[in-house]
Amino acid sequence: xxxxxxxxxxxxxxxxxxxxxxxxGYVAQKNAISDVTGELQRLHAARxxxxxxxxxxxxxxxxxxxxEHAMLFEVHRMMLEDSDFVDPIMKIIETELxxxxxxxxxxxxxxxxxxxxxEDEYMSARAIDVRDVANRIVAVLSxxxxxxxxxxxxxxxxxDDFTPSETAQFNRDKVLALVSQAGAANSHxxxxxxxxxxxxxxxxxxxxxxxxxxxxxxxxxxxxxxxxEPAEDIIATxxxxxxRLAGEQVLLEKFRGKETVTRDGRKLKLYANxxxxxxxxxxxSGDAEGIGLFRSEFLYLGxxxxxxENIQYESYKNVxxxxxxxxxxxxxxxxxxxxxxxxxxxxxEENPALGMRAIxxxxxxxxxxxxxxxxxxxxxxxxxxxxxxxxxxxAEELRRAKNIAGEVRAELSVExxxxxxxxxxxxMIETPASVIISDLLAEEADFFSxxxxxxxxxxxxxxxxxxxxxxxxxxxxxxxxxxxxxTCKNAxxxxxxxxxCGMLGADATLTKTFVDxxxxxxxxxxxxxxxxxxxxxxx
Length: 539
Ligand code: PEP
Ligand code: MG
What we know:
Bound molecules: phosphoenolpyruvate, magnesium ion
CATH superfamily of the largest domain: Phosphoenolpyruvate-binding domains
CATH architecture of the largest domain: Alpha-Beta Barrel
Helix content: 40-55%
Number of helices: 20
């Protein structure tokens, strides 16, 4: 057994096989074999597993995007059975006595080249399918995972780091836990893991090496320990802890469906942060009183092109309908900085966190912004929606954004499209500038939600993505607490509510402080809600 230690960023216990995310950098070794029958069996088992992955992907695509998109995976599945593809691989194993990984890579490279050499443009482009199918088989053989959407058995997914767009595509039923070499506690990978209730440990450094691929592992997201090929006593201890945690969860059930209220009767709202439609189930089972932050930019990540108005409308409508009459606060596009999508063609920036991101992109690309706002307003006809603008720094920015929202409402009215014309428009307080002028902003916003992740980054001048700065990132810094107090005071003076949707909102050691400051709402990962409600009931 080997025990590795990292930084636990999402608690929970998981047991499973460690699979490394492969982004195409795999190099097959030319290993000699002596057991031909055994090697052929490995190959056929891998083909079978790849076929199951493709079936699952086809089904998923069919549901999400329709038959046409599912066809590609069907073609790939047929290739797995095709003798032109399979026979040359078997021949290398049988006659050259070389391992299956090498045989797949070599034979498929030859076949792909034959396609490339064809005159017909369509046929020549099929080389990519050959490579894709070969990569999938090799990924299964080598214990790496070719893409984050594939996989038929639940696994512990490992990588050097995960990008937000990768996390946006995870097949959440199949990822038991996330472990990475790098990563910062405030990163979106950590946030995603907590939202999904998936245990996660980051910052293992080089000790989390690809040599561990395919090994059984057990981890504890609270203590940040990962055991490779765990001993019996470790499995027993962690199984016991898993049971205890489940037991504590059962005790919290008495708070389900209740209001969040302090001993002296002060009521707060406990909302959930979500990144996609798929997270709504977690929000509901966590007993969220609403959605306090729908990170809509995740709809834009992990794609090749902009999601059009209808794709967005369907997603927002889905969330809104699933939440019934509960409030759903949709934050408009917060792309840029660590959340990159190539098709935005954002310029290279020295300091992307201080660059073209969030509302700045929306204000400089009104058509893009309008498409999203149209989708949100249309969804407002189906439930209780609010709009929230990220990274607002000045009253003028808020006015410009609200004017564009006004244009959208006017267009929808002319088109006789139904929507709620009175959708509240709030803003995130994420920069020191917005805190200092929160009295002015409060006159023009319907609510405030404090984004403590960015507020901490910009106040303490600590890049939230830089894990080497963690000792300088004091999230409890007095400056942050004072900023929260000032923002809340100015909100109340103007008669609007003030919440917190950054990670600090879920920090149980600060709940009393927030209650005393007068915070009206906390928007947190769904799994924290019942625990917070029970804590608040004691205050
Ligand atoms: C924040 O900055 O606190 C926040 C909630 O937004 P995000 O983490 O998505 O930047
Ligand atoms: Mg933010």
